[in-house]
């Protein structure tokens, strides 16, 4: 005899607020962007027409889009490698500290305590090409004969932004990696030492396997965040000079809020979403494989 | 039973929350108008861009007094920087989240009128006295014979200089662009730059400076049929002129400068010349009080000494009432209050010489004249007032147009300068590219 399954209203009602929030804040923006990307939607004009894929054609035939895309890739790869290297190294170092670990960890996390606007304005002040602290001290120390223009010299500005982003993002990597390091059973290291394993062998065969999933997830999250990062770049250089630091989000912003072509700006963001989904798919496939291997 | 109660409880909570959300603007009391009751009654929101200092205080005090005089009125004031304000109203318009009244910039007003977002203000202007306003200032907010804005205060761009540096170098105040360049180059020494040339793409400074040169030659950055004109001989000469200044007298960082970066250099005594309105005085007073006695202003340089006097850029900062407002009558009454003599003079005194009266009958009153800064910088007041009467907003010399607003809001001219400076792009090629880009943007609003 079949048992009649009662529909559980209570659980749906409890979940409903969360579903509504996700629906309003995630699903609606995605579908509205998708829809607007196929229209002539203008920021301050009420009427618009459906134009199919015309906005995509316009964006994909704009050389500045490809330049911004390349800049975004370099920005993401450069920032991520720097953040991973510094964050990982700092985590390994702090993990070996016996006294005052908490203080070091707190000091390292300071950049995360400040809003982007404060960080951007502080760095703008430090790097100011006339009265900035850093350019002037470099001249006074004889390291540079003239004031370095960190935010306006096209050969320096991109590296400067990456440096600032590494400074900002590395602590987050450090804290997460440090947490993962602290979960590794110490007896595995002791056993390895008894077996005569070198420090590098211990790192490669014990440390890395234990933390690679955490690091993998961090890389996924940071890739999305760094690729989509807008505020620090916009506040420091506005994408200049001469588009040298214009990434795809800055390009999309200028399209939507500068020219007010919201339809075309939406096409840029949809392309950005598609690209990031593809990147995440690759990442998650790799992480899935690692997890299977661990089991 | 427990489950049913839980369902009922959560359902009630969600229902209440939704009703509360829907009811946010549903204050029936606030919908009563003056016409119905004979008294002002309701809530209004006022966005303005006087984000700090005495101006902010004077506006708040006036609002407080207005609410005291009209106990059923509530004025909520929200402040935004000009940059934020533009983003706020453009996005707000799409979602219906705009204030009842606000300040604006002339270029904004044209876009607002184009979007049919404003209430006509002819009745208010007539009430205050139409003949008190400059016709040019009123025309900046006029469409099809109807005025949608009225200027709260005015100022104009003039040339500011350091008297002590000119004296020390035995130089006269430059009257032509050639004299200006020579003086700026001579004064670029000992940690002081002759003149900074700003062209950050987040601001309109590059356009402003190019416009100075082009207007001095009687030209415009717009053609008669409202197309961008960056490839005229005059515009190309202007581009080359400012590139020369950048190369020889300007900090290299100025390629990314916005208005405040630029002004700060002059405030701190790091530039010998700058172009600005009377707001320069307050900035120097705050940053370098000992330099206040060393600054003064003069008319913008000309191409030839015997060219006619001109004004390149006048800003008449307008007030507008939004179509979405449920209480335009309160907004108009409050604006009228701002123009009452005592209130108005108090407001102008918040930034003396920086904000000059947009209506007649104020500048010759003893109360206005007795201000210490107005007395000390009487030459600046004269120079700016004279320049103000001859100028318009950038591009408005061809009449108010959306194109004029787009000319300054896109950063395209600034990017052109950056491209030439950073990539060494040929001037004519860069100008042509920028002109085409601007015309492409213009075509989206036609």
From TrEMBL, chain A:
Subcellular location: Cell membrane
Pfam entry (one): BPD_transp_1
Residues covered by the ABC transmembrane type-1 domain: 69-283
InterPro entries found in the cross-reference section: MetI-like, MetI-like_sf
Broad class of the protein's primary localization: membrane
Membrane topology recorded in Swiss-Prot or TrEMBL: Multi-pass membrane protein
Positions of transmembrane segments: 12-31, 73-94, 106-126, 156-181, 202-226, 232-253, 265-286
Record's keyword terms, sorted: Cell membrane, Membrane, Transmembrane, Transmembrane helix, Transport
Family per similarity comment: Belongs to the binding-protein-dependent transport system permease family.
Annotated PANTHER family: BLR7065 PROTEIN (PTHR43005), SPERMIDINE_PUTRESCINE TRANSPORT SYSTEM PERMEASE PROTEIN (PTHR43005:SF1)
Name of the featured protein: Sugar ABC transporter permease
Organism expressing this protein natively: Blautia parvula
Classification lineage: Bacteria, Bacillati, Bacillota, Clostridia, Lachnospirales
UniProtKB/TrEMBL annotation, chain B:
Signal peptide: 1-19
Keywords: Signal
Record PROSITE patterns: PROKAR_LIPOPROTEIN
Signal found in the keyword field: yes
Pfam family for this entry, one: SBP_bac_1
Gene3D superfamilies: Periplasmic binding protein-like II
Superkingdom of origin organism: Bacteria
Name recorded for this polypeptide: Sugar ABC transporter substrate-binding protein
């Amino acid at each position: 005899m079949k048992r009649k399954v009662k529909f559980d209203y209570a659980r749906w009602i409890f979940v409903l607020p969360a579903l509504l929030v996700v629906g309003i804040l995630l699903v609606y923006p995605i579908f509205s962007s998708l829809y607007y990307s196929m229209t002539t939607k203008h920021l301050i004009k009420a009427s618009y027409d459906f134009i199919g894929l015309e906005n995509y054609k316009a964006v994909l035939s704009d050389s500045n889009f490809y330049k911004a895309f390349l800049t975004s890739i370099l920005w993401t790869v450069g920032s991520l490698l720097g953040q991973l290297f510094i964050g990982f190294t700092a985590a390994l170092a702090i993990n070996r500290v016996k006294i005052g670990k908490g203080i070091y960890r707190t000091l390292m996390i300071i950049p995360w305590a400040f809003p982007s606007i404060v960080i951007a304005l502080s760095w703008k002040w430090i790097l100011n090409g006339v009265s900035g602290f850093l350019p002037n001290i470099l001249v006074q120390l004889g390291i540079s004969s003239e004031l370095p223009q960190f935010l306006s010299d096209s050969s320096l500005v991109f590296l400067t932004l990456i440096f600032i982003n590494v400074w900002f993002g590395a602590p987050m990597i450090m804290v997460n990696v440090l947490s993962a390091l602290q979960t590794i059973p110490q007896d595995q290291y002791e056993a390895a030492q008894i077996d005569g394993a070198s420090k590098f062998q211990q790192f490669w065969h014990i440390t890395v396997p234990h933390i690679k999933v955490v690091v993998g997830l961090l890389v996924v999250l940071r890739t999305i965040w760094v690729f989509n990062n807008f505020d620090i770049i916009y506040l420091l250089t506005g994408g200049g000079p001469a588009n040298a630091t214009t990434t795809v989000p800055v390009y999309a912003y200028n399209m939507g809020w500068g020219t007010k072509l919201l339809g075309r700006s939406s096409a840029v963001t949809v392309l950005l979403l598609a690209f990031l989904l593809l990147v995440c798919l690759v990442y998650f496939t790799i992480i899935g494989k690692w997890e299977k291997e661990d089991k | 039973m427990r489950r049913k109660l839980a369902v009922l409880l959560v359902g009630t909570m969600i229902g209440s929350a939704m009703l509360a959300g829907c009811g946010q603007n549903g204050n029936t009391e606030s919908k009563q108008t003056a016409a119905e009751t004979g008294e002002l009654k309701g809530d209004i929101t006022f966005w303005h861009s006087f984000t700090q200092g005495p101006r902010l205080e004077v506006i708040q005090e006036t609002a407080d007094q207005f609410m005291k005089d009209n106990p059923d009125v509530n004025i909520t004031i929200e402040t935004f920087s000009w940059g934020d304000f533009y983003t706020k109203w453009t996005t707000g318009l799409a979602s219906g989240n705009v204030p009842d009244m606000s300040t604006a910039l002339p270029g904004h007003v044209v876009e607002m009128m184009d979007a049919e977002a404003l209430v006509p203000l002819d009745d208010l202007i007539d009430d205050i006295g139409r003949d008190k306003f400059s016709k040019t200032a009123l025309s900046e907010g006029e469409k099809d014979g109807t005025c949608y804005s009225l200027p709260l205060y005015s100022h104009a761009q003039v040339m500011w200089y350091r008297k002590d540096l000119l004296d020390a170098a035995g130089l006269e105040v430059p009257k032509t662009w050639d004299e200006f360049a020579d003086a700026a180059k001579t004064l670029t020494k000992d940690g002081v730059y002759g003149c900074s040339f700003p062209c950050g793409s987040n601001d309109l400074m590059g356009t402003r400076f190019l416009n100075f040169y082009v207007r001095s030659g009687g030209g415009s950055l717009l053609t008669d049929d409202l197309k961008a004109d960056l490839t005229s001989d005059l515009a190309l000469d202007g581009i080359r002129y400012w590139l020369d200044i950048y190369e020889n007298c300007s900090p290299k960082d100025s390629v990314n400068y916005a208005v405040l970066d630029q002004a700060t250099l002059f405030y701190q005594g790091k530039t010998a010349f700058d172009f600005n309105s009377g707001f320069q005085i307050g900035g120097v007073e705050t940053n370098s009080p000992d330099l206040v006695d060393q600054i003064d202003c003069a008319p913008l340089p000309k191409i030839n000494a015997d060219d006619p006097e001109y004004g390149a850029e006048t800003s008449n900062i307008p007030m507008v009432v939004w179509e979405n407002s449920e209480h335009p009558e309160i907004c108009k009454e409050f604006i009228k209050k701002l123009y009452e003599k005592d209130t108005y003079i108090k407001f102008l005194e918040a930034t003396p010489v920086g904000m000059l009266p947009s209506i007649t009958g104020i500048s010759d009153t003893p109360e206005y004249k007795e201000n210490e800064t107005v007395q000390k910088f009487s030459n600046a007041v004269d120079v700016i007032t004279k320049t103000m009467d001859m100028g318009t907003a950038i591009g408005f010399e061809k009449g108010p147009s959306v194109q004029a607003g787009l000319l300054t809001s896109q950063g395209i001219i600034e990017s052109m300068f950056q491209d030439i400076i950073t990539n060494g792009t040929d001037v004519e090629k860069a100008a042509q590219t920028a002109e085409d880009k601007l015309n492409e943007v213009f075509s989206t609003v036609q």
